[in-house]
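Dear Dr. H.,

I hope your travels went smoothly. While you were away I took the liberty of generating a structure for the chain from your last submission, since the lab meeting agenda had it listed for discussion. I wanted you to have the full record in hand beforehand rather than looking at slides cold. The sequence, exactly as received, is reproduced here:
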Amino acid sequence: MLQENGGLELTDNPSKEEYDAIVIGSGPNGLAAAITLAQAKRSVLLMEAAPDIGGGTRTAELTEPGFLHDICSAVHPLGVTSPFFKNLPLEDFGLEWIYPEASVIHALEPDRAVVLYPDMEKTVAGLGVDGESYRRMLAPFLKKADVLLEQILHPFNPLPKTPFLMARFGLRGMSSTVSMARRWFKEDAAKALLAGMAAHSVLPLEQSFTGAVGLMFGVIGHRVSWPIAKGGSREIAHAMARYLQSLGGEIVVNRRVSALSDLPKARAHLWNLTPSALCKIEGLKLPSRYTKKLKAFRHGPGVYKIDWALSGPIPWQHEDFKKAATVHIGGTIDEVADAERAPWEGKVADKPFILFSQQSLFDSSRAPDGQHTGWGYCHVPANCEENVEESILKQMERFAPGFRDLIIDRHIMNPSAMESHNPNYIGGDITGGVMDMWQLFTRPVNLFSPYSTPLPNNFLCSASTPPGAGVHGMCGYFSAKAALHSILRA
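The corresponding predicted structure, in token form, is as follows:
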């Protein structure tokens, strides 16, 4: 059956009996892998179990008609700075980025926000006595931001373009966020701003390496305002799919793959799956030693996410809260650290750190006239079944009194619901596995080519490979390059 979906041709059945490569899973990494192969003139089939493509970049009317909610990813700083995405003509295939005035707002107190602008001078002006320290901390990396980000997202480059810059970033970023904040800053504003960005690591902020995540997002925040996709995150996947089809790639949906026999013939298979899911594919005869390592791959905390349909704009106490699509709702660095440590201790934080997005404030297509959407989640223990809604609402009311009164409807996804939506989100873990310093560079196992498997025509291309989570496509790109280098040589 052929169906039209936003200008896409999605079918239920492959048109051919044999392809050069089949990519299983249509998230950003699966799409990136398929595009890279199609650019190399290989015949490619992309297969998806769901009725629509996108993985973590899907959008749906989860609450009421006319309210468009991003199911997982919502704001995309890596989407516009990724070396892979920057080289795609996605704007020619329908993608339109919206750039708010500021990259991110950190809610420090009900009437006080810390703002990270792309403009360093404006940011420094809001950080008081710590402004110059903040500038010194980031200045070496901002001068060559694009080169730095390219190398950060290419973790296996033995000859980096700027070895001294990378060494400097590595030495500074090896610190924990807490120790970095104490070393560089005196007051709470800059400390909290760094903590909120580092919390995207989904690690305790006392842990080594989390400082690097805070630094990276700070660099990106000054390189470009953190954007949203007009019409929802699904437009990223749809633009990638249109481009793939323009290159001759084929997309099949509603086809769950649980065995090799579910696939047409192909020279190579690229799996956008978690390690444990790969182990379950019938007929894929992986060596027991390798399978044991895959099963030892660690997953982290889950998320508890709420989407709201709102009757009006969010009643923030301070005007600065309206300058960005992304708001970090967490208070001081100590509050953020407590909240991010709790899931690792099997607890739900009393005051959760909320990653919040207000896309409709900048994109009127997200909600009916005069109405708005809200998108927010916090980190909770894996497979947590506890109801966290009231804790989240209390945090929202703390910074936006009257928020409850605006709620028309809400849609909740706890960790099990997240995993049901996307089987790659094991226990609600949306990062594809723990991204600490031990597992970031050895994901999923310690191999020279982490995308390859002991079976020469099978490759992994999910976020469980380097450089890890995020809508950047680099895992899929590197996996496709590995396949082209070996089994799919011309």
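Two observations you may find useful: The two ends are 33 Å apart (CA to CA). The mean pLDDT is 95.

With kind regards,
E. W.
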